[in-house]
Amino acid sequence: MGFKGFFEGGIASIVAGCSTHPLDLIKVRMQLQGEAPASSFQALRPALTFHTTAGHVHPHISLPPPPPRVGPVAVGLRIIQQDGVAAMFSGVSATVLRQTLYSTTRMGLYDILKQKWTDPNSNNMPLMRKIAAGLIAGGIGAAVGNPADVAMVRMQADGRLPPAQRRNYKSVVDAISQMAKSEGVASLWRGSSLTVNRAMLVTASQLASYDQFKEIILEKHLMKDGLGTHVTASFAAGFVAAVASNPVDVIKTRVMNMKVEAGMAPPYSGAMDCAMKTIRAEGPMSLYKGFIPTISRQGPFTVVLFVTLEQVRKLLKDF
C-alpha cells in the first residue's frame, strides 16, 4: 500500500507539472524582474541613493534606472517573440525529474502518514495532524529533489540573460553535470534550506487544505464526492498554498539563479541576505513578485494534481 501511494502521487504530479510548466516559467521570469546584476550590489540601488546636493547624486555613483516591470501576459508574449513557442517549455525535462523526485516522495509520505494518523472511528484526520504530515513529507521530498529544482530554475531563467551570458544547458542531466563540474557537487543543494522551507509550507497548506476543504464540502452536503468537489477543494488549496509560499519562492528563485564567478563574492551570502537586499532595493511587496502567475499556476496545478490523483486512485483501487 505504501508503494501504491508513491506511484499514484508521482503520476498525478508529473501530469500536473508538465501541463502547467509555461505558467511556472513566467512566474520565475517575473520573480527575477528588477534583480540587480551581481556587480551592482556593491553600490546603492537607485531607490536607496541619497541626494547630497540639490537634485544631484554623488558623482562616482552611476547606476541605470531599474527596468520597467511587466505583467505575466507581456512576459509570456516576450518569450514567444524572442525565442519561439517552444521556449515556453524551457526546462521541462527538469520539471519531470523534479516531480519524479520531490512530488512523488512528498505525496507518498503524506499518504502513509495519513493512513497511520487517521482516526479509525470517524475516518478523518484532525487538521493539525494533516499540517504536521504535510510539513514532514514536504521537507523530506524537497531535500531529495533539490538538484532538479536548481536545474529547473536555471533552465527557466536562462532565456532572460544576454546570449553571451547564457548557460545553454541542453537538458536537466547536462545542467546537473555542468553545475557539479564547475561549481562543485554542493551547488546542487544551493538554496536547499529555502527549498525545504517552501516545500514544507506548500505541502502542508496544499495537501492539508485540500483534504480539509473536501471533508467540509462532503460533511455539509454542499456537493457529492465527484469532479465538482475535487475541483473546488483543489483550487481553494492552490490559493492557500500560493499565499503561504510566494515570499519564500521569490528568495529561493534568486538564490538558486545567482551566478557565482571565480574570485568574486556571490551576490547573496544566504537566504536572509537575499531577502534583506531584495526588500531594501525593491520594497517589501517585492516578496510577492510573480504572485499572479503563481496563483495562475498553483490553481491549475493543484486542480490537475488532485483531479488526476482521484482518477488514478479509481483506476488502481483494485490493485
Question: What report would you give on this structure?
Answer:
The protein has about 325 residues and is mostly helical. About 65% of the residues lie in helices and about 0% in strands. The protein contains ten helices and no strands. The protein has helices at about 1-20, 20-30, 70-85, 90-115, 125-155, 170-185, 190-220, 225-255, 270-280, 290-315. Helix 2 (about 20-30) packs antiparallel against helix 10 (about 290-315). It is globular, with a radius of gyration of 21 Å. Residues about 40-60 have low confidence and may be disordered.
**What structural category do the secondary elements indicate?**
mainly alpha
Number of alpha- plus pi-helical segments:
10
Rounded mean pLDDT score: 82
Rg on CA atoms, Å: 21 Å
Quick synopsis:
The chain has 319 residues and is mainly alpha-helical. Helices cover 65% and strands 0% of the residues. It is found in: Mitochondrion inner membrane.
Features:
mainly alpha, 319 residues, 0% strand
How are the secondary structure elements laid out?
Layout (H helix, E strand, L loop, with lengths): L1 H18 L1 H11 L40 H12 L8 H26 L9 H31 L14 H12 L8 H28 L7 H31 L13 H12 L8 H25 L4
Helix pairs in contact: 1-4, 1-10, 2-10, 4-5, 5-7, 7-8, 8-9, 8-10
